[in-house]
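COURSE: Structural Biology Practicum
ASSIGNMENT: Worksheet 4, Part C
STUDENT ID: 0417
INSTRUCTIONS: Below are two proteins. For each, the amino acid sequence is given first, followed by its structure token string. Answer the questions at the end about the second protein only.

PROTEIN I
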Amino acid sequence: MSSNVSKAVRPANTGAFFLQAVVSFAVSAGAIGLGIAYLPVAAWVRAFLAVGTLYLVTSTFTLAKCVRDRQEASEVTTRIDQARLEKLLAEHDPFKPV
């Protein structure tokens, strides 16, 4: 069996999609920063909101990394299972007496 046939197609993000994600993150972070800075409350409330936002951003990155790692682990397992199946099929001789 040809290795090109069993090679999985890996989806790739385009440069435009990556740029859109970066711009979206920058705009939303800027909007939150401006909103907190101009909020008509005491400084300690703004500081509390800023720390909460920082915690939200870091936990979001951590969650995204965990989801990505889990997905990559399942892909590796799938590739190993696929390789084992291909090996069994390649070694199988239907005309061999049992």
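PROTEIN II
(use this one for the questions)
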Amino acid sequence: MSRLVMAAALGSVIGFERERLSWAAGLRTHMLVCVGSALIMIVSAYGFEEVLKSDHVVLDPSRIAAQVVSGIGFLGAGSILLRGEIVRGLTTAASLWSVAAIGLAVGGGLYTASIAATAIILIILAGIKPLERRFISVKQRRQLTMLVDRGSLSFHALHEALGPGSVRVKQFVVQQSDDSPELDEVRVELSRASSTEYQAICDRLRHLEVVREFREDDAS
């Protein structure tokens, strides 16, 4: 009983971090995975004691727990979403897999390892993300400025022009040009665009009929 409660508590710590970001696999899902994994481990370790005492019986109880590692994959796959060319949910899928491992550790009586793993996973999920945004994502931001015919380029028109590349648009700002009242100044900020994607987006925008001037800026 105590192992199942501990598994629920450790799973809730990881699940709460996912829940606050409004992911489909949140608090309850992580708790259930952790408790279920712990129960399977307990069954694997102690559920076959009577059978193993019989003569001429060879049984490997650890095989049941081993199936958790591969079986948890269907939950992880369900948390992964494909939006355009962007794959989202991989981190949540990995957290579900990790929580399953925590549950197995708790079920096996490895309390120190399970608590340490929970702390490390929480640091990775909640602590590393701000650093990633500050030092990695910022370097992947690029900004473009265009002068276009007045009222000719809306966000919908930009989306149609870029196609799948529109998912890279982080900011879209339109204002009247200071140099000419007949032109709009459009600023587009791109996020996490590879060099190939960036060049493809620039080529598409540069060749739009409504674009009179195109400039690549340094977003940093």
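ANSWER KEY EXCERPT:
Q1: The longest helix spans residues 111-137.
Q2: The beta strands are 81-83, 86-88, 142-149, 169-176, 183-190, 211-217.
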